[in-house]
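Spend some time on the protein that follows and explain the fold to me:
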Amino acid sequence: MARLGSSSARRYAEAAFEIAERDKSTAEWLAELDRLAAALTDEEVVRRLEDPEIAFDRRHEAFKSLFRDHPMLSQVYNLVGLLLRRRRLEMVANISGEFRRLYNKQQGIVEAVATSAARLDDDEAAALRDRLEHMTGGTVELTLTVDPKLLGGVQVRIGDLLIDGSVRGRLERLRGRLESGALSA
């Protein structure tokens, strides 16, 4: 079921991206979808906005009132109206993520997730980003995570590619080579 929601979110994001490109407003769409996703993290708000006991027009106006101080593009309101009518507001975060993926691809931005045993300081993170930008030939948007199970070193995931420079990964590769007999005394 999650896969169905994911492909639906991808289709919504692709349609929204086409509109944003046509209107030359991809950066604005990106910011508004991010803001929208953050606003709809509260399950109680989503439940009330999707309440079938309340007429659609009232629910849609209630949604618009959430953003009265910082209005959105009319096309974003239209997208939300469609999702609201179909009671699919929970998809907004996935749509926002898919839109960001499309935006990053268009801008030549490579998304990378670096996992280390301990938090990297700013200089280490900058050095890692520089190295990844040199490797990929593009701008890298780096997300840092911590997993103490790695023992030391860093694992970097760029799309389907995993670069494993962790101590745990090295030990596992060494064990595999020992078990296969590829490494002998």
Notes: The first strand starts at residue 109 and ends at 116. The longest helix spans residues 2-22. The chain has a mean pLDDT of 88. The chain has two domains: 2-104, 109-180.
